[in-house]
Each structure stands twice: as C-alpha cells, then as structure tokens.
C-alpha cells in the first residue's frame, strides 16, 4: 500500500512540476515581443541534421535581441522528431496557443507536406532551412518559403559536376528507398544520363547492415562514380563495404550524408576523397564571402562547435524574419508581405524569394572529405577535386 | 446476463488500489443508474477538448484538441479493436498496425484516385480491413502463442514494405491530398462547429472518433455478452477443452481477428483524412507495440481498461515532452512500475482477474503470472 501511495505521490509531484515549467511558453502580440517558432527533429534519429540550423537561428535571434530593439523576438522550439503526425499537433499548438507570427522550418520535407496546409490556412509565414523536396514549391502555397535549393537543382548541379569536373562516363546510383533518398538518386540518374553517361541503379535497405549484393553489382559495373541518396548512417556502411571490396572510383552522396558521422561510419582512411553535394553552405574560412567567416566565429564562440550542415541556412531564415520585424512588421500578415520583397546578403547566399517561395539564387556546393574534416571545394559549376 | 455477479468479490491480486467497491455497486446498479453513468461519460468525453483541461493536459506547446484527435482517440479506438483479439480471444497479435494501414491506404487510394467520398471509403475500408483479417487469419490461426505472434509480426511488416515498394501508392513518398470528410452542417454550439471538418480545428475529428469509439464499445460489449464472447473466453482459457466441448474454435478466432481488424481499419481512415497525407513510415511496428502495451497495461480483456491504457500510452510521452531525451526513459520506467504494482493492468477485467488468480488462465505463454500453475500442471502430466 505504501509503495503504491509513494508512486502516486511521485507522479503527482512530476505532473505539478511539469505544469510549473509549462507556464513560461510566452504568448506574443503584447506589443513589445513576438514569438517565432522553430520546428524539426531535435531529439529523433536524424536530429544531427536539424540541431545545427536550430542553433543558427537561435544565434541570429539572440544577436538581434541584444541590440535592444523595440520589438523583441521570443524563440520557441517544437520537436517534431521528423514525424508528420507529431508535427501537425505541434503546429496547431504553435498557431493557436503560442500565437507564433512565423515559423522556421519544418526541417524535413515529409513533415512540411503535412504542416504546410495548416500554416496556409492559419496564414502564418514559414521559412524552411532544409526541406528540399521538389513538390513543396509546386503546391502554390503563399505562406511557405525556403532558403535552400531543391533536389532538382541539386541533381542538376551534381550532374554538371560529375560530367564536367570528374569526367565520369559511368555512374552508379544507390538509394535507401525512402522519400528523400530515392527522389535525389533518381533525379541524379536521369540528369547524368542526359549528359551522355551510362547509369545503373540499385536500392539498399536502410535497416540492413550487409550490402554485399549492391557492392558486387557496383564492382562488376566499374563505374567512375557512385552516388548514394540517403542519410549518413547508411552511406557510412555502404562506403565502408565498397572500399573494402576494392572499389576505386569516386564515392559521392548528398546533403543527408553531410555530417562528420559519415567519416566515423566509413572509417577515416576509407572516407578520404569522398564527395558530398549540398544546397547548404558550410564555409568556416570565408571562402565565398566575408560574412560567412564572422558567422562561423560567432557560432563557434556560442556553441563550442563548428558550423555544420544548414546552420548557415537557419541563421539566414531567422534573419529574414528579423529584417521584417526591423522594418516595423509585427503581424504574420505584414511579415509575409515583407518576405515577398525581402532581399539581402545572408551569411550563406543572397536571400530573395520568387513567387513560389523558392530561393532566387540556386547554388549547389561540393564538399570533400579531407583528413577528419569535410572541406568546401566550391560551387558545383566550378569545383575541382583536389 | 451478468457474469461478474457470480464471481467472488474478494480479490487477492494487485496492490491496494482496488476498484472492487465501485464494481460491486456497478454490478447491482439499476438500469437507469447505468444509463446515467453512460450519458455522463459521453458528455465528459465531449467536453474533454476544452481549454481549461488542455492547459493542464498539454502545457508544452502542443494543441490539446489535436493531441486528443491525432493520437489519444485513435489509440483508444485501436486498443478497443486489439482488445477483442488479444484480451477477449487470447490471440497474441503483433501486426495490428497492418489493419490500421489497410484502412489508411484504402481511403488514400479510393479518395485520391477514384474520388470516392469519405463515408463511402469508410465502409469500404472496414470491409477491406476485415477481409485482410480473414486473409491473414485463415492460414495462420492454426498456430498458437509465440508462433502466431511471429506470423502476425511478419504480416505487419509485409503491409508496410508493400506500401513502401509499390509505385501505385507512390512508394516511400506516400499519398498526399487526401480530402477531409465533407462538412455535414455549419451548426455551431459554444463556438464549435462539431460537423465542420477543416484543417485548423481538430475537435470535429475528435467528436467523430468519440462516436466511433462509442459504436465500437456497444458492438464489442454486445458480442462479449453473447455466445460469441463466451466462446472467445473458452478459447482464451483452454483452446483444446473448448474444441472438445464443441466450440468451433477456428471460426471464432477468425471472427475475432476480422472484428478487431475492422475497428483498426476505421481508425486508419480517420487518421488519413485528418492528416491529409500518409507515408509508409506512419505504420511502423512501434504502433503495434504501443497499442499492445496499451491493452496489456490497461488490463487485457477489459474495455475500459484498454481505453485507459491507450490514453496513458498516447498521452504520457506528449505530456512530458519538456523532458526531451529523458521522456521515453521515464515512460519506460512508468511501464515497469506498472508491471510491479499492478501486473493485471490498471483496470483489469474482473472475470479475467479472477481467472488469473485461480491460475492457468489466459493467453497461453503471454502472461508471466500464469507460470506457477502451468509448471504444476506440467508436473502432473509428467507423472
């Protein structure tokens, strides 16, 4: 009896504590502060791709609030774990209870499909730092924007890079049979084919660990380059097995694999020279512009880690909202109107949206694994393999 | 007929939180008292999405009404369906999510490709889900216990993989643009339009689910009290004895599977219509596991127990969302605590509880509590 009572008392204490913590959510619209949300997978299995943009956005808003502006911005995060069904619940809460005036995210394309209609009907502008699915811009959403090029642009950029810079005549594409990976690999396959290369393709199971049947096919085909569409965990395993099977061509993957875990997964020696493509800019040395260097330093000072995938985009997405607020727009409607005409040089690329919410400047960058780091080679149109 | 009346009212299992006095009253309550309680419960369920309750239940940013409709009510409906299979007939089904997926994909295909309306697809989905229950059940229900669990687990995976690999349903991209149910009327009460199915207000979906849940409860309860229910009980307790006594066990097991599947399918339809898009990853094994956890946690075989269990399973992780990475750990700890303090479930079926106390009852190898009696019986056999 006592034990039961103890358990009940403990859960009651927990529940009360939760109530106390939950109280500080902070509604916006009281004149001198507004709330901007960030939604994405913050604790799930692909959170490695979403925490950097969250930190980027956080940094931008903190820097803005430090200037003592008239209207401060509250930053509130929504952890969807990348699951569409959780994202919709959170989005409704964000709209109704927290009264957000803008949303940075959702980070992934799948959840964007579900959350988009809600934001559209609630008339809340959103700027995604990382959702790259082609179909998102085709829905005619008026409140949706993104600061990253879509998968079509990425595949065109990769195709240019593979055929011009690498001179690849035979390309093998592999995907993980998931929404993002299959879309990217298929698009790259047809883009490379259009440039005159022969292409073979295969799918791997993202839960499996042994890819020998795919590896054998690749070794038989002897391609100049293998492109993998999918996330870093699978890419690491595949590249490791490819290298061990004696494959000597180039290994390449997309933004889903652009994480240092790829190097640990593949093994440092095997991973050397592996190429990655991304619509995001990770530029710690300020190779592309001077703002990038300052951002990388600020980011490192605050989070004690290097800028990573999409942190630049998170910062730029937040900056777009900040510019709107600085221009005196505090309602969702005014902010959306302002986003139609916003134009500034972000820390990544020039930020300007077309009428579908796509970024006007569509750059794809190529990265290469060098030592323990992933180094920027440059824009896909001019990048040269070292 | 009321079976609970005949059972001894003294219980010897579980902790101190006994529901027995309440149950004794309930067993003796007059018809009008029972109906009064039913009506009050339904009114309570309809008032549940109010903001006053939501501010405590969902403080960390999520919309309480959406949480109720998208997660809690769906899980409650699924748990009622699975309770028929696992709780009443004693068949361990680890692939229940397959039927939920069949429902979801039926509306996705027929509403998007053939422009069927929500209500037409709902009927069709229930038929399809029941049929898939029969298709799975016909070859597999001759298996028992662990073997059945493995086969059903496989079936759940097959459905998900088929959806993932089939271009007809867009493979891993899933189906988008599933229409909402048509708005029945603009009728408004207390500022809610309960029959207007839009995207921003989740309450109409919740009311619809409450309606389905009430229907499912009436249906299942009627069955439980009928010859069918008694046949399920006999199968659950001792299948061989039931067969020898002339119960066509295979047919009743198949019926349990089909009914459970039909209820799961209806949940899938509402889910897909509410979300407007479905992906194969919506139908992970995790859903099967959580619904099964809900049934066992609530008290297998008991409808109110399964509902309570589903509520806890769907709500706890959301309520403690502010704990971030630790919330699943705490959720697991809560489940373990449950197993220690109330092994027969939060709100056990009285009949099953008595059978468990008696020993030897229920679900073959599933319940840990049946161990002693079985070894006793085994010892007797080897003598």
Automatic annotation (TrEMBL), chain A:
UniProtKB keywords: Signal
Signal peptide: 1-20
Database matches in CDD domains: PBP1_ABC_LIVBP-like (cd06342)
Pfam family, one: Peripla_BP_6
InterPro entries xref list: BCAA_transport, Leu-bd, Peripla_BP_I
Entry keyword annotation includes Cell division: no
Residue runs in coiled coils: none
PROSITE patterns hit by this protein: PROKAR_LIPOPROTEIN
SUPFAM superfamilies: Periplasmic binding protein-like I (SSF53822)
The keyword Signal appears for this protein: yes
Domain Leucine-binding protein: 33-371
Family membership: Belongs to the leucine-binding protein family.
Name listed for the protein in its UniProt record: Branched-chain amino acid transport system substrate-binding protein
From TrEMBL, chain B:
Localization terms from the record: Cell membrane
InterPro entries xref list: ABC_transp_permease, LivM-like
Alphabetically ordered keywords of this record: Cell membrane, Membrane, Transmembrane, Transmembrane helix
Transmembrane segments: 35-60, 72-91, 121-141, 204-220, 254-273, 285-316, 328-347
Short name of any one Pfam family annotated for the protein: BPD_transp_2
Membrane topology, as annotated: Multi-pass membrane protein
Domain of life: Bacteria
UniProt-recorded name of the protein: Branched-chain amino acid transport system permease protein
């Amino acid at each position: 009896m006592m034990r039961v009572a103890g358990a009940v008392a403990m859960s009651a204490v927990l529940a009360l504590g939760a109530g106390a913590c939950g109280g500080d959510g902070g509604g916006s619209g009281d004149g001198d502060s507004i709330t901007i949300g960030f939604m994405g997978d913050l604790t799930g299995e692909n959170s490695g791709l979403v925490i950097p943009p969250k930190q980027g956005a956080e940094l931008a808003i903190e820097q803005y609030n430090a200037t003592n502006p008239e209207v401060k911005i509250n930053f509130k995060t929504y952890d969807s774990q990348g699951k569409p069904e959780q994202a919709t619940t959170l989005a409704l809460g964000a709209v109704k209870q927290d009264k957000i005036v803008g949303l940075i995210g959702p980070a992934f394309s799948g959840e964007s499909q579900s959350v988009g209609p809600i934001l559209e009907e609630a008339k809340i502008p959103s700027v995604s730092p990382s959702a790259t699915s082609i179909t998102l811009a085709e829905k005619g959403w008026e409140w949706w924007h993104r600061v990253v090029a879509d998968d079509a642009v990425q595949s065109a950029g990769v195709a240019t890079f593979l055929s011009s810079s690498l001179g690849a005549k035979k390309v093998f594409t592999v995907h993980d049979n998931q929404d993002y990976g299959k879309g990217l690999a298929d698009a790259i396959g047809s883009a490379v084919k259009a440039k005159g290369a022969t292409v073979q393709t295969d799918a791997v199971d993202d839960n499996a660990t042994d890819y020998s049947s795919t590896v054998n096919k690749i070794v038989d085909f002897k391609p100049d380059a293998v492109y993998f569409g999918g996330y870093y965990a699978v890419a690491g395993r595949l590249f490791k097995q490819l290298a061990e099977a004696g494959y000597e061509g180039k290994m390449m993957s997309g933004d889903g694999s652009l994480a240092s875990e790829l190097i640990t997964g593949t093994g440092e020696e095997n991973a050397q020279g592996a190429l990655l493509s991304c619509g995001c800019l990770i530029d710690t040395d300020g190779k592309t512009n001077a703002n990038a260097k300052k951002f990388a330093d600020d980011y490192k000072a605050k989070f004690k880690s290097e800028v990573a995938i999409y942190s630049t985009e998170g910062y730029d997405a937040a900056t777009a909202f900040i510019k709107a607020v600085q221009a005196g727009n505090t309602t969702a409607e005014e902010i959306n109107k302002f986003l139609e005409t916003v134009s500034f040089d972000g820390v990544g690329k020039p930020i300007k949206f077309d009428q579908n919410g796509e970024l006007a400047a569509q750059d794809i960058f190529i990265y290469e694994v060098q030592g323990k780091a992933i180094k920027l080679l440059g824009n896909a149109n001019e990048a040269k393999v070292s | 007929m009321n079976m609970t009346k005949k059972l001894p009212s003294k219980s010897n299992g579980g902790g101190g939180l006994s529901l027995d006095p309440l149950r004794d009253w309930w067993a003796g309550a007059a018809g009008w008292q029972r109906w009064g309680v039913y009506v009050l419960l339904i009114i309570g369920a309809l008032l549940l999405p109010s903001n006053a309750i939501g501010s405590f239940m969902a403080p960390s940013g999520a919309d309480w009404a959406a949480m109720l409709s998208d997660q809690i009510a769906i899980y409650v409906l699924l748990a009622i369906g699975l309770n028929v299979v696992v709780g009443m007939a004693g068949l361990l089904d680890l692939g229940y999510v397959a039927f939920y997926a069949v429902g979801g994909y039926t509306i996705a295909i027929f509403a998007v490709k053939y422009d069927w309306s929500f209500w037409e697809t709902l009927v069709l989905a229930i038929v399809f889900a029941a049929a898939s229950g029969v298709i799975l059940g016909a070859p597999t229900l001759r298996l028992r216990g662990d073997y059945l669990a493995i086969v059903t687990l496989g079936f759940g995976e097959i459905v998900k993989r088929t959806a993932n690999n089939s271009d007809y349903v867009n493979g891993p991209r899933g189906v988008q643009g599933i229409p909402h149910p048509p708005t029945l009327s603009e009728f408004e009460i207390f500022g809610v339009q309960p029959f207007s199915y839009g995207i921003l207000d989740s309450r109409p979906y919740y009311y619809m689910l409450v309606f389905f849940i009430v229907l499912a409860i009436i249906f299942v309860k009627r069955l439980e009290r009928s010859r069918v229910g008694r046949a399920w009980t006999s199968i659950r307790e001792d299948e061989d004895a039931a067969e020898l006594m002339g119960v066509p066990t295979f047919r009743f097991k198949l019926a349990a599977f089909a009914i459970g599947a039909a209820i799961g399918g209806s949940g899938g339809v509402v889910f897909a219509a509410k979300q407007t898009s479905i992906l194969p990853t919506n139908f992970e094994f995790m859903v099967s596991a959580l619904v099964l956890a809900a049934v066992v946690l609530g008290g297998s075989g008991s409808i109110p127990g399964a509902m309570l269990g589903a509520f806890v399973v769907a709500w706890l992780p959301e309520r403690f969302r502010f704990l971030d990475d630790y919330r699943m750990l705490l959720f697991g700890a809560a489940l373990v605590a449950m197993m220690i303090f109330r092994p027969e479930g939060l709100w056990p079926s009285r009949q099953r509880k008595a059978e468990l106390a008696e020993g030897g009852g229920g679900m073959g190898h599933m319940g840990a509590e049946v161990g002693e009696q079985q070894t006793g019986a085994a010892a007797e056999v080897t003598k």
